[in-house]
Task: inverse folding
């Protein structure tokens, strides 16, 4: 990918160029594409966490950027663009879930879709460990897993994850914290086979 | 802070110096605690091994293709028209609020005073509707009369400075929604089709900016619901809890007047349409009992605080239950324009939602 022509400029500055009607259209369009470069993957990751389907997540991601293009004029800069964008993504996904939850005739996903999920395992060293972590993640409840993945893997701040999950920041923090502890238990040498593996360590270990 | 949070905060470097020292002292004397910390550290390291979600092959090209038309449209738009969301009550409703007013809003109607999240949106509605649908009577707003008055004032000012709402409507829609009195029967599963009504699609496609859309919404609502506030102005406030009685009264009134109007239809002047007759697409007068139901449930829907242009109304039967499907074009807070098509299907009896569809 070419280097960002707007390198060094904040998201908000780049967005301001996109909405600046004094600039030539080509320049404005370039500004928009730069924002897509910056956020496409992450918006997709968020949508994928919510929708658990690659094609649904891709649709929702497109919708989110369409809304950014059309709604950029109403962005007033009291929030960070990232937060604003994630909130839009969250709403698009919520709408998607609501819409489809009410249409029983709609197939949930192609059977092959989930297995060809974007986070494809690669063949480099450490694959076993990754599979173990992925399996351990799957033992978490969906909301905890979502919060943990967004923060620990996708690199969202707690504040951004709070927007995506629609929870207070403190709740996200403690949820992520707990999810880390449960993951630690599940990954511990005796954790995977033990039926009590999901129980936090300190509950079955005496403190002193 | 419980133990888990202390440990994770410690790993994140988020503990204050004294908390950190205290924990380190505990760690020094507690091997089980040390083991838990190490397990956490190992789990964090394992997590870091996981690749971040990758975009599917070709996703960027598909996104660019989808965006090209949108960007061309946006970039070609008149520079003089930024899309500020005009609201008396301050901030535009956030998308969160917009999400929250979705399907439960009818069932929540009687409890709405207990739903603070709705008040921002509802205040916006009072503003745009001015005195049209008389929300002030419901006691929804704490400062009811004052806010209602200032809202009406602003709406008036707006009406002077903005283009005539009729000019913004689809060519053959007039200032009233299309009433499709098919009386057909359907099932819940088939209601999705109602979103495909050309009237809805046409209006949504126009993507009216917030201000224009609000004007049209007010116009259409007045056309459909009549100047209820004007008629009841003397009782505003005093009838805060008499809405059911008021509804029945309005219903009876509507029935009487509609009968009269039906006889005198030839005298109708298009410049001053009667506010108590609802015409169907074929130009037929909707029977008064139907019209009363249409008004009653639409009022309930709009009271819940949406900024909506009623666009189609269909009297149908869903799984054997008489129902009304309202096609609305609503404000999308993200785009600042009226671009969302929604169909709300409600039971005629209690105006309870049977189904909500959204484009």
Result:
């Amino acid at each position: 990918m070419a280097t960002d022509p707007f390198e060094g400029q904040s998201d908000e500055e780049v967005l301001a160029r996109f909405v600046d009607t004094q600039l030539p259209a080509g320049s404005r369009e370039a500004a928009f594409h730069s924002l897509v470069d910056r956020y496409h993957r992450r918006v997709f990751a968020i949508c994928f966490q919510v929708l658990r389907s690659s094609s649904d997540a891709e649709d929702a991601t497109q919708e989110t950027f369409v809304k950014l293009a059309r709604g950029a004029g109403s962005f007033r800069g009291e929030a960070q663009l990232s937060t604003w964008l994630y909130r839009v993504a969250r709403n698009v996904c919520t709408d998607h879930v609501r819409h489809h939850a009410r249409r029983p005739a709609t197939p949930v996903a192609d059977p092959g879709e989930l297995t060809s999920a974007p986070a494809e395992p690669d063949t480099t060293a450490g694959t076993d460990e990754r599979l173990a972590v992925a399996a351990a993640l799957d033992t978490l409840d969906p909301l905890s897993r979502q919060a943990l993945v967004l923060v620990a893997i996708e690199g969202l701040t707690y504040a951004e994850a709070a927007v995506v999950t629609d929870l207070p920041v403190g709740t996200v923090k403690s949820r992520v914290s707990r999810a880390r502890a449960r993951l630690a238990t599940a990954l511990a040498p005796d954790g995977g086979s033990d039926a009590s593996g999901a129980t936090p360590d300190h509950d079955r270990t005496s403190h002193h | 802070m419980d133990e888990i949070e202390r440990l994770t905060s410690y790993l994140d470097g988020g503990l204050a110096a004294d908390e950190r020292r205290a924990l380190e002292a505990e760690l020094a004397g507690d091997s089980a605690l040390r083991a838990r910390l190490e397990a956490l550290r190992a789990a964090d390291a394992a997590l870091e091994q996981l690749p971040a979600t990758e975009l599917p092959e070709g996703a960027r090209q598909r996104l660019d293709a989808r965006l090209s038309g949108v960007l061309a449209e946006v970039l070609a738009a008149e520079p003089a028209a930024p899309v500020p969301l005009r609201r008396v009550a301050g901030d535009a409703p956030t998308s969160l609020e917009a999400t929250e007013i979705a399907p439960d809003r009818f069932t929540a109607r009687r409890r709405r005073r207990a739903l603070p999240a709705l008040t921002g949106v509802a205040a916006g509605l009072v503003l745009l509707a001015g005195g049209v649908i008389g929300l002030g009577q419901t006691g929804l707003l704490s400062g009811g009369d004052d806010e209602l008055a200032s809202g009406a004032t602003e709406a008036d000012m707006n009406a002077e400075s903005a283009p005539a709402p009729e000019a913004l409507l689809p060519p053959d829609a007039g200032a009233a929604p299309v009433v499709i009195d098919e009386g057909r029967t359907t099932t819940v599963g088939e209601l999705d089709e109602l979103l495909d009504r050309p009237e809805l699609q046409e209006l949504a496609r126009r993507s009216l900016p917030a201000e224009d859309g609000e004007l049209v919404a007010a116009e259409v609502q007045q056309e459909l619901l009549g100047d209820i506030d004007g008629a009841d102005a003397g009782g505003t406030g005093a009838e805060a809890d008499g809405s059911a009685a008021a509804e029945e009264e309005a219903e009876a009134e509507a029935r009487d007047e509609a009968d009269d109007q039906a006889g005198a239809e030839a005298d109708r002047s298009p410049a001053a349409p009667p506010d108590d007759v609802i015409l169907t697409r074929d130009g037929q007068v909707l029977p008064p009992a139907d019209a009363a139901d249409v008004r009653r449930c639409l009022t309930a829907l709009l009271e819940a605080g949406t900024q909506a242009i009623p666009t189609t109304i269909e009297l149908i039967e869903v799984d054997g239950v008489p129902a009304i499907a309202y096609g609305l074009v609503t404000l999308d807070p993200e785009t600042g324009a009226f671009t969302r098509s929604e169909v709300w299907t409600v039971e005629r009896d209690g105006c309870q939602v049977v189904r909500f569809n959204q484009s």
